[in-house]
Amino acid sequence: MDTVQKSKQYRPKRYSQKASEVKSGYLFISPFFLLFGVFGVFPLVFTLYLSFHRWDILGETEFVGFSNFSSILFNDPLFWKAVGNTFSIWALSTIPQLIAALLIAFFLNQAFLKYKSFFRLAIFMPNVTSVVAVALVFSAIFGTQYGLANYILSLFGIESISWSGSYIGTHIAISVMVMWRWVGYNAIIYLAGLQGIPKDLYEAATIDGANKLQQLLYITVPLLRPIIIFTVVQSTIGGMQLFAEPLLFGEGSRSQGLTMTLYLYQEAFNRFSFGYAAAIAWVLFLIIIIFSLFNLFLTRKIGSS
Amino acid sequence: MHEVGENKLSKIALYLFLFVSAILSIFPFYWMFVVGSNTTSAINKFPPAVVPGPNFIANSIEVFNRIAFFQALANSIIISAVVTISVLFFCSLAGFAFSKLQFKGRDGFFIFVIATMMIPPQLSLIPNFMIMTNLGWVDDLKAVIVPAMVNAFGVFWMRQYISSSVPYELIEAARIDGCGNFRIFLNIVLPAVRPGLATLGIFTFMMTWNDFLWPLVVLKDSSVHTLQIALRTLNDVYNTDYSLILTGTFLATLPILLVFLLFSRQFISGLTEGAVK
Fold this sequence. Notes:
The complex is a heterodimer.
Chain A: H1 2-10, H2 19-51, E1 53-55, E2 61-63, H3 67-75, H4 77-108, H5 116-124, H6 131-141, H7 148-155, H8 167-194, H9 199-207, H10 212-223, H11 225-240, H12 244-249, H13 260-269, H14 274-301
Antiparallel strand pairs in A: 1-2
Helix pairs in contact in A: 2-14, 4-8, 4-11, 5-8, 6-8, 11-14, 13-14
Chain B: H1 8-36, H2 40-43, H3 56-66, H4 69-100, H5 106-116, H6 125-135, H7 142-145, H8 152-165, H9 168-176, H10 181-192, H11 194-210, H12 213-218, H13 227-237, H14 242-276
Helix pairs in contact in B: 1-14, 3-14, 4-8, 4-11, 4-13, 5-8, 9-10, 11-14, 13-14
Organism (chain A): Gracilibacillus kekensis
Pfam family, one (chain A): BPD_transp_1
Membrane topology (chain A): Multi-pass membrane protein
């Protein structure tokens, strides 16, 4: 919304609306709309159509009304398990991740700090790694029999944890993968925001006797709010779409790693129930919207009181 | 002087915190190489090998024998390069129209473009797979390239960039000299927004390189696998042979890591610019 207002502001003194300008304008934006029409609009409509049908691999269709939706909502414990897993992994990965990112950014922003660009580079590096690579290296680290994680635990006299066999083990392992890949990204985004906060605000607060923690809570966090909202919404959308990590790490014998998108993928491409999978896609979309709005509401509250 | 770390102790604590964060960020890359350069039996014991071993070359040859690594590398490069070039061209073209040309419904169309970013890709996954099946594009690189040739984020990014860094006077002057709109785009706008193009380019290249779900659905035959899909195959077939799997992972990560280290300054500053805009 902000951008549209900006466009008004940028608009120059009036130009005569030449016909050629109009023609070029439509021509230049047409590739996006062409592609979006074919691979965006049509699929949306078709997913809606599919979700009201039973459609198998042979292409036999049968109109079933809302029955796909009602079985998902009321008669599919596996789906709800996937929803629970997704939210659990989201919370385990996002909350510590954003707090860590905020701390890292806060420290990186200190004027006396040396080797700033080295720290920035090192901390951001995980983000360019592919999810597949991340999932594979952490699968090795979280191996139950000979994994590094269990070895380190054994040094402290802690018994081996069955990472891929237990509910909490799987959730922690997958959350660590997500965290590792995204902490640096969020820290860099926060750092950009921090650099926009005027220094004299902190100086004034120091004169008024506020300590560091108070400054962080009452100056930094409120002023960073738009950026915190941005990162929360982004990680919500990303977290709800978690797919590659559980696929490669293994969902476990009791489906403790099954996420919503993985379930959708399995229904569509392993069991070929396209109609049912299409209905799952819509439910998923709804959950993402509702949860994003909820988080938006929650983060808006931060610091506004 | 009004900062954290005024005294020595908290300064040390701060450095320690950042140092540990940096180590944790780098360690998995190191671990990839440690496991990839040892034999599986050296890894599968307590305590495990914690320094690189002598087996990296042997493991690499084993990886090349078991999966079509170089074919997958070539596929990844082709897909990422074509998508990146096409995204840069079409997105800046649209960005130019949205910021500098006057036509009816312009702002409405632009809001529409932004709104499409809200749609999660899962929603169109199945119909898109059916489209590809009908076009006969399953197991064809086109299936990954064509839908990605222009995207909403890129249009948004380039519009913001062009509207803030190309003055109208420049365009007006070119018009007086008799330049058409496309000539203006090629000769005036593109050279002026090179930094914006670079950031979007690196970003697009990495996103495409690392993409997993869609290629997994449409690229089934091993001759069209991207690196990510080939790694997945390696993992599926040699489930517990971590030396082999992580050798492959290390080899597949190396190119993108080099690209990143080469352009890191551009990339990180571009990213922060976009976030606070």
